[in-house]
Structures are given as C-alpha cells and as structure tokens.
Amino acid sequence: MSRNAARDAALAANVARRRAFSLHGYATLAECGFDGDYVSPIQISSGAPDGPLLMSKDWLDAPTARKAPDPLRQIGYLPDMPFNSVLDAALTMIGMERAHIYIAPVFCLLPPVRSHPIPLRYALASFDAVTRHEILGRRPIALGQDAAAVLSRRGIDHVAVPHPSARGRSFADRARLIADALHAVAKS
What we know:
Order of helices and strands: HEHHHEHEHEH
Number of helices: 7
Strand content: 5-15%
Largest sheet: 4 strands, parallel
C-alpha cells in the first residue's frame, strides 16, 4: 500500500471513529450540519497530513457553528475569532500558511456554549476514541492547558504553548510563542 493510500485509509478510519463517538449533552458535527470527510472542519484549510500538528481543546461550540455555517463550510473556521487571528499571525511570522499545518481538537464534539469547560474524563474519552489516531508519529503542539493536560495524561511528548485566545498575555506574545513552537517542531 502506498503512503498516500495508507494515509487516506487512516483518515477514513478516523472519520468513522469521530462519527461513532458521542456523549450526552454535546452535539456531533452531523447534528450541527458539519459532517464531512475530516475529523474536524478546521482541517478543510488546516489539514496537511505531514504538517506540524497543533492540538486545541475543541473546534467550536454548537450555537456558534449553527450561526455561521457559510464560512465554516468553506474554510472550516471563523477568521475573526481571537484563536484564529493569533494563529494566523503566528503563521505569518514564520512564513507558513494554514495549508502547511494540521489542527486537531482533543475533544471532537461541540459544547453547548462557547468556552465551555470540558471535564477531563470527557476530553480523554474523545482523545482515546478519535484524536490519538491523528498524531501519526508527530510531536504535537498543545494549544492551551486543556490540550496539554490530555496529552500529558496520556504520556505523549508535546510542546505546550498558551491557547491562542488565552488572557494574560499580549496578542503578539501568544503569536510569537506559537510561531516558535511551530518552527521548532517543523525542524525536528
């Protein structure tokens, strides 16, 4: 089996795992109208299978996803959200584009509200069922404490950086830390 065929088969298996995973109180991508051949819609524009892997807490919350279906179906993310603005600035700093990276949320369902705290046991269940299969030998960059907690709990070597929309650090500082991590991981 060629490398591309093996990668395509792995992606199809991961999509099937994501479709099979559910938890009471959390919406699936299908329930919000975003089922597709990806583990997360953000992979429409940030799904380079061999690119640096960034892991976030989740993709989006259900109400926001339902309110903005057009850009989410086209590019998989909302450019004006702080998370995406900081990430785009980090990529620009090191001359990369979203097409060069792979973003995977540790939690593959949609919370009922924005910035909803996801119990660690639920994040671990989602990671074990779905997202751990996205690593494919790469050293992930954990975007924020929630992603870092899951990766640490599972003993996965990673680079931890602040969440792109975290408070307490400037926009430029968050972007630089992510850019430095991307640069370091891309070189290794």
